[in-house]
Amino acid sequence: MAVLKLVVGFLALLWIAAVAYLYLAQDSILYQPRPVDAMQETTLMQDVPGLEVFLVPTRDGQSLSGWYLPRRLGRGIAPALVYFGGNAEDATDFMKQAKNYPDVSIVAVNYRGFGRSTGTPGEQALKDDALAVYDQAVAETGRAAFVMGRSLGSGMAVHVAANREVLGAVLITPYDSILAVAKEHYHFLPVTWLLRDHYDSLPDAAKALAPALVIAANLDGTVSPERARALHDAWKGPKRFLNVPGAGHNDITQYPSYHGATVNFLKEHLK
């Protein structure tokens, strides 16, 4: 009996430690900004002709920094593809893929606290910022834009699609909510009470009228395909679902089926 009490006590201490860790470390788990790489930025400017720095002021006095690549469409500027990245991405990463999307202008801006953007990340702040970034992209081109969100960024893309007129939404390894994702990973912990930022995309998805392409990675160990499917099922507008065989959370963009689907979706809905 004494041994059993010791074992139970030890397991209880481990559980308490896990609860404390998740509560205290949740921001560093969810938001993982990288140090500014000035050399990478300089190389990008040299490699991508026409690339411009894109600065967006926020309502609370912060400054968001990223990139804008205008492209021509007929006599005007092509609609923008506004990209919202994952929790460890820098806007520079996506701009390296600009050649993959030659028919649209491209906007990619770092979240507050990421890259050269000021401020501290948080759910409501990032969602408000996403609307500001989108509005400025529309002002630059003079027409509605596409939104593309990957992983964490899918929540921002869905929020924009629910509150603005968009041409279409590409959602890569998206979730119905971060809370649901956390429950899958930490099913033994009371995550509902621990998490500050739930990122529940379902109410926004239920209001979004634009066409959506939802892309899941069938070997995703971070955001399961079931989470992506739940978001797809809640989407109000026209939608299609692609589950990329063999792909994981971090390497999905390397698969030809992913690339073909995204390019074809943009061409189909380009105006």
Q: What does the secondary structure layout of this molecule look like, with pairings?
A:
Elements: H1 2-30, H2 38-47, E1 52-57, E2 63-69, E3 72-73, E4 76-77, E5 80-84, H3 91-95, E6 105-109, H4 123-141, E7 145-150, H5 152-163, E8 166-172, H6 178-185, H7 191-194, H8 202-205, E9 212-217, H9 225-234, E10 239-244, H10 256-269
Parallel strand pairs: 5-6, 5-7, 7-8, 8-9, 9-10
Antiparallel strand pairs: 1-2, 2-6, 3-4
Helix pairs in contact: 4-5
List the keywords.
single chain; 271 residues; alpha/beta; eight-stranded mixed beta sheet; two-stranded antiparallel ribbon; 10 strands; 19% strand
Radius of gyration, whole Å: 20 Å
Largest pleated sheet: 8 strands, mixed
Strand portion: 15-25%
Helix coverage percent = 40-55%
Would you list the SSEs in sequence order as H and E?
Answer: HHEEEEEHEHEHEHHHEHEH
Mean pLDDT: 92
Choose one word for the global shape: globular
